[in-house]
Each structure stands twice: as C-alpha cells, then as structure tokens.
Amino acid sequence: MKKLSARRRHPLAALVVLLLALAATGGLYAAFAPADKAQADVAAQSLAIDEGKKLFAVGCSSCHGLNGQGSSDGPSLVGVGSAAVDFQVGTGRMPAQQPGAQVPRKKNIYSQAEIDQLAAFVSSLGPGPVTPTEEQFTSTNPEDISKGGELFRTNCAQCHNFAGQGGALTKGKYAPSLEGVDAKHIYEAMQTGPQNMPSFPDTTMPEEQKKQIVAFVRHTTNDEPNPGGLTLGSLGPVTEGLFGWIFGLGTLIAVAIWVAAHTTKAKKS
After folding, report:
1. Which letter, b or e, does each residue of 213-235 get, where b requires 16 or more Cβ atoms within 10 Å of its Cβ?
2. Is 144 left (phi over 0), alpha (psi -120 to 50) or beta?
3. What CATH number has the domain bearing residue 70?
4. How far apart are CA 81 and CA 102, in angstroms?
5. Pick from 116, 123, 169, 146: which is nearest to 215 by CA?
6. pLDDT (tens digit per residue) in 69-117
7. Which domain holds residue 64?
8. Do 108 and 47 belong to one domain?
9. Does 200 lie in the same domain as 167?
10. Which of 125, 159, 186 is the last residue of a domain?
C-alpha cells in the first residue's frame, strides 16, 4: 500500500494518466467515428469539383480562363467563392450573352445541381463567400421587416429606390429592380457585391442585418398591397405629377377642343 501511495504521488503520475485517457479517447473515436460517411463526403465533393471543371471548361473558360485566372474578356474567379457563382449563374447573368455596360438578369441555362458543381470547382480555386443556407436568409420575425426597412433606406435606397424598383446609374449602368428576386440571391448579392454594387461582408453588415434587409425587400416587392392602384414604379410625386400633367391635362385639352368644335357647329347651324 505504501508503494502504491508513493507511485500516486510521483510527479509524472498525472501526465501518465492524461496520456492514457487521450489514448483511450482516440481509440474509441477511431472505433466508432463514421469514417465511411466522412470518406463519402470527400468523394462526393471531389466528384462535384471534377464535374464542375468540365462545365466550366465548356461554358466559362472562354472568358475566365481554363483555371479561372481571368483574361481580357473576364475577371479572375480566384477567391470569389461559391456564393458569387450561385448568384451570377442562378440569375442567368452568367454566361453573359454579350459584353456591355452591365450584364442583365435572364433565364438561367443550368440546373441547380450543375450550378452547385460549378460553385464547387470555383471554390476550390481559393476561399471566398460561401452560398448561404436557408436559415441565413429566411426570417420568421415580423419585426425584421421594419428593421430591414431602416437598413435598406440607409444602405441601398440610393441606387435601388426606396421601394426596391431600381434606378439609373452612370454610363449605361443601372441598379436592377428587386421585384421577384429570390431571397437567396438578394443575400448573395450583399455578400459578393456583383457588378456595380458594393459588397457587405459580415464584418461590415452582420448576418442578422442582411436577413432583415431580405425580409424587407421580399415584403415590399411581393407582399405589400397597393391600395392606390398603379404604383408607377413607386418613384413618388415626380412620376405621379408627370402622369397627371400628361394624361390629366391632355384629357382636359382634348375635351375643351371637342366642346369648342361642337359649339362652333351649333352656332353655324
């Protein structure tokens, strides 16, 4: 008993016990860890990258280079991340039909599975913004709409109009309308800053604030009623006044001419 007690008090006893515990933990993890699942995930990711590289070579390499290094016709894609690919290809902006001041949104030509494969390949070129999950851009809190409205008016309304209807910029560029845009794509646009738009990484605008802006845009462009009828682009009193002058005043002038012409005929008769 004295010998055992002396061993327990040995300075290295605690280290030996710790090493034995770590060895036991490692052995148990190796025995029960889902190694097959991890290997399957790695194999699936590798396959997605290979398939994405094939798609990229056919549809994207003519402008961006075979390895995404860029060329005189297209920028480098190293470090843009999967979110940029999902946005650009998912909204049909890429592949571009022709060069111009700005690439417009159009019907996309790839399935979501193919977009994911392209995103996997581009992501393998260098780290960048990751495609968001549904939880990141979907809000269930009604208060997020009002909070998102404040953020939108501060950061986005200068270009997209306070109701998200878009607006003109310089040299043929424009801020597109946000009506009908998928919530995920709105979030990705803030992540990546496509074309003329600045990017809003989490260090500048936290994830929760981006979610609130998405909630506001979706409510304003899709759910908010228009009790006054035609919105005229939701541009405010300028367009409404112009509409009144052109059509309202034009109608009054036409009625005045008609009345004058019939009055003249009645006097002659």
Report:
1. bbbbbbbbbeeeeeeeeeeeebe
2. alpha
3. 1.10.760.10
4. 21
5. 146
6. 999 999 999 999 999 999 999 999 999 988 888 999 999 999 999 999 9
7. 38-125
8. yes
9. yes
10. 125
